[in-house]
Write a structure and sequence with these properties.
single chain; 18 helices; 7 strands; five-stranded mixed β-sheet; 408 residues; alpha/beta; elongated
Length: 408
C-alpha cells in the first residue's frame, strides 16, 4: 500500500513567505520552477549516490574507485518552459540517470502535448508558436515533425490490425485534400471504411490515399479488408464511384451494394439554385421515402414530369443508378434507417475537414495519413454507444441472414 507524504504546513508557509502575485509562483523564475529544478537535481544526486555506493565527499567505497566528476548541463523542455538542469557525472561515465535519461531533452508527457495539438489540426508553425506562448519552450519545427513522424509506426499497426469476421454494414466514402506530388500539388482522395460491428458500434476499419482511381484501386482496398479477417459484409454503402461496387462484389459476392442516398441527393442539388433547392429536395425525399421500389419509381416519374425541363440531369442520374438504389427498399424501416443514416461517416468527414482546413496542401501522402489517423483516434473515443436503432435491426439481420450470422 502506497502512502502519500504530506508537506509540513510550516515548510509551505516558509516557501510562500515572499508570495505577492501569481508570477511569484508560476512565472518564468517562480517558485514552482525553482522547486522543480531543485527536486530534480537532488533526485539525480541521490541516484548517483546509489550508483557509486557513497555520499558526496564521503570515502570512495566501490571496488573500481569510481567517484563523482563534476556536472554537465542540459535544458529540459516541458509545461514549465525551458528548465536548465545540472546532471552529475562520474569518472567512468557509467552513470545512467533514471529520472532523466542521457538523451532526453523533453519532460515526460511533452511529446504527448505536441501530438495532441497536431491531431487537432495545428500546423507545425502553429504548434511552435503555441508552445512558446503557453510554456515559454522554444521547440524547432524539425523536432515537432520528428515527434509526429514517430506516430507512423502506430499507423502501420492500426492499418494492419485484425478485423472482425462479419460486419453487417460498412460505409465507404472519401474526402479530398491537396497533396504535393512530384513537385506539383494534386487533389487526391482519402478513402475511409467505417464498419458497424455485431454490437452496433462504429469502427474505423482503415484509410487509404488513392494514387489512381478505378477498379484496380478499389479491388486492392476490399481485398485488404478480406485479408485482415472480414469474411462477410451484409450491406456496403458506397458513394457511386466507378468500379467500387464491382470491386466489392468481386470479393464479397453475397454483399448487397447500396448507393448512398445522401450522396445521390447532394449531387442532385448541385444542379439547383438556392431558391429551388427546398422544393427539389422535398420531391426527391418522396422517392427515397417510398414504401416499395415500385412506388419509388412512380414518384421518380412524377419528379421527371415536374423538373426535367429545368434540371434534366437529376432524374437521368437516378435512372442510371436505379439498380444500385433499389436494394434500399428490400429492408424494413429499422434497417433502412441505418443504411440511410450517414451520420456515421458524415460526422467523421466534417471533423477531418476541420483539422485539415489550416493546410493549403500536405507535403506528401504520409503527412495526411498521419494527421487523419490521429484525428480518427480522437473521434472514435466518442463512440461509446451502439447505434440507436441497432437492436431491431440486429433482430432483422438475424432472420434475413440466418445462415451467414456468426456463431456466438
Amino acid at each position: 500500500m502506497t502512502t502519500t507524504k504530506t508537506l509540513p504546513t510550516d515548510l509551505i508557509d516558509q516557501l510562500l513567505s515572499g508570495y505577492k502575485k501569481p508570477e511569484d509562483l508560476v512565472g518564468e523564475n517562480g517558485l514552482l520552477k525553482q522547486l522543480t529544478k531543485a527536486l530534480i537535481e537532488r533526485a539525480l544526486q541521490a541516484e548517483m549516490t546509489e550508483h557509486l555506493g557513497h555520499d558526496k565527499h564521503a570515502t570512495v567505497s566501490n571496488l573500481t574507485g569510481n567517484a563523482r566528476n563534476g556536472k554537465s548541463g542540459k535544458t529540459l523542455k516541458g509545461e514549465f518552459g525551458e528548465l536548465p538542469i545540472e546532471i552529475p557525472r562520474d569518472r567512468e561515465g557509467s552513470f545512467e540517470p533514471q529520472l532523466i535519461s542521457k538523451h532526453q531533452t523533453r519532460w515526460t508527457g511533452f511529446d504527448d502535448k505536441i501530438i495532441s495539438l497536431y491531431s487537432r489540426g495545428m500546423t507545425v508553425r502553429e504548434i511552435q508558436s503555441h508552445l512558446i506562448e503557453m510554456y515559454g519552450a522554444e521547440v524547432s519545427p524539425t523536432l515537432i515533425s520528428s515527434v509526429t513522424d514517430a506516430v507512423m509506426e502506430d499507423v502501420k499497426q492500426w492499418q494492419s490490425r485484425p478485423l472482425d469476421a462479419v460486419y453487417p454494414v460498412i460505409y465507404l466514402d472519401c474526402i479530398h485534400v491537396k497533396i504535393r506530388d512530384a513537385g506539383a500539388v494534386r487533389t487526391k482522395a482519402v478513402y475511409l471504411a467505417i464498419g458497424i460491428n455485431m454490437q452496433g458500434e462504429k469502427e474505423v476499419l482503415g484509410l487509404w490515399v488513392s494514387q489512381t482511381e478505378g477498379a484496380k484501386f478499389w479491388l486492392g482496398v476490399v481485398t485488404e479488408l478480406k485479408n485482415r479477417g472480414i469474411q462477410d459484409i451484409f450491406i456496403a454503402c458506397v458513394d457511386g464511384l466507378k468500379g467500387f461496387p464491382e470491386a466489392i462484389e468481386a470479393v464479397y459476392p453475397q454483399a448487397t451494394v447500396q448507393l448512398c442516398i445522401v450522396h445521390m441527393v447532394r449531387n442532385s442539388l448541385n444542379y439547383v439554385g438556392w431558391n429551388k433547392r427546398g422544393l427539389v429536395a422535398t420531391d426527391l425525399k418522396r422517392v427515397y421515402s417510398a414504401s416499395t421500389a415500385d412506388e419509388a419509381e412512380q414518384y421518380l416519374t412524377e419528379f421527371e414530369v415536374k423538373w426535367d425541363d429545368a434540371y434534366p440531369p437529376i432524374a437521368k442520374s437516378w435512372r442510371n443508378n436505379w439498380t444500385r438504389i433499389i436494394p434500399f427498399f428490400d429492408y424494413p424501416p429499422e434497417i433502412r434507417r441505418i443504411i440511410y443514416t450517414t451520420n456515421a461517416i458524415e460526422s467523421v468527414n466534417m471533423s477531418l475537414r476541420k483539422v485539415s482546413k489550416n493546410r493549403s496542401s500536405f507535403p506528401n501522402d504520409e503527412a495526411v495519413t498521419k494527421l487523419f489517423y490521429l484525428a480518427l483516434i480522437n473521434i472514435s473515443k466518442k463512440w461509446t454507444m451502439p447505434l440507436r436503432d441497432w437492436k431491431p435491426a440486429l433482430n432483422r439481420f438475424t432472420i434475413q441472414f440466418e445462415e451467414r450470422m456468426p456463431q456466438q
